[in-house]
Design goal:
The protein is an alpha+beta fold and about 220 residues long. It contains seven helices and ten strands.
Length: about 220
């Protein structure tokens, strides 16, 4: 016996709900954590290697200037930090783990910038978007201070407008474009490695955190 349209509606509704649930299960929930740790090329490179992180975007936040440029931010006066937004799956990596990794990938005792990069835009900070993130950040900060036995100067700030940095800053660490440096024309990825080594980032982090530094090799 053939079903009429009226009889089919409940069946179609059940089918739609079924496939909707399948689609929802296939898309794991993602959260975002925003941090500033000096040069955003380096922070992006570090956290994109963490299992459970979907992606990292370099940008500017914490200031009042609308649509700031890299030149404006690094010159000072905008109030912005060089920062990154880390998109992650809480079912695979927790915000507590990410914050623990963050503190051990920077010098949180330095209030004047990070490594060779000096000035307000290169300072460390954590930008929280809710009470749970704030509590996690406060706990991670206290734990980092206890681990180092030193005062942690990294502030915990309310999240504000995040401006994505210029396209050439995104994934700079693995770019293949040729850029002109003091070493001559080299690929972006090579320029990045030379910058990171020359700036002393890994050397300082290793000295400060020792074997607990998660992104320092060798």
């Amino acid at each position: 016996m053939l079903l009429g349209l009226k009889d089919l509606k409940p069946v179609l509704l059940v089918i739609a709900i079924f496939f909707g649930l399948i689609a929802e299960c296939g898309q794991a929930r993602a959260d975002t954590l925003t941090v500033a740790g000096g040069c955003f090329w380096c922070v992006e490179s570090d956290f994109e290697s963490v299992p459970g992180v979907r992606g990292v975007v370099s940008g500017y936040t914490g200031g009042k200037t609308k649509n700031p440029t890299y030149k404006q931010v690094t010159a000072g006066g905008t109030g912005h930090y060089e920062a990154v937004q880390i998109q992650f799956e809480p079912s695979k990596v927790s915000v507590d783990t990410l914050l623990n990794l963050f503190f051990r990938s920077v010098d949180p005792t330095d209030a004047g910038g990070q490594f060779c990069d000096r000035g307000d835009s290169y300072r460390t900070a954590i930008f929280v978007s809710n009470a749970a993130q704030r509590a996690a950040a406060e706990a991670a900060k206290a734990e980092a201070g206890s681990a180092l036995g030193r005062k942690i100067v990294t502030p915990i700030l309310a999240a504000s407008k995040f401006y994505k940095a210029e396209d050439y800053h995104q994934n700079y660490y693995k770019g293949s474009k040729i850029v002109i440096t003091r070493f001559g024309p080299v690929k972006q990825s090579t320029a990045y490695k030379k910058y990171r080594a020359g700036c002393g980032r890994d050397a300082r982090v290793k000295k400060l955190w020792g074997s607990a530094a998660p992104f320092v090799h060798g």
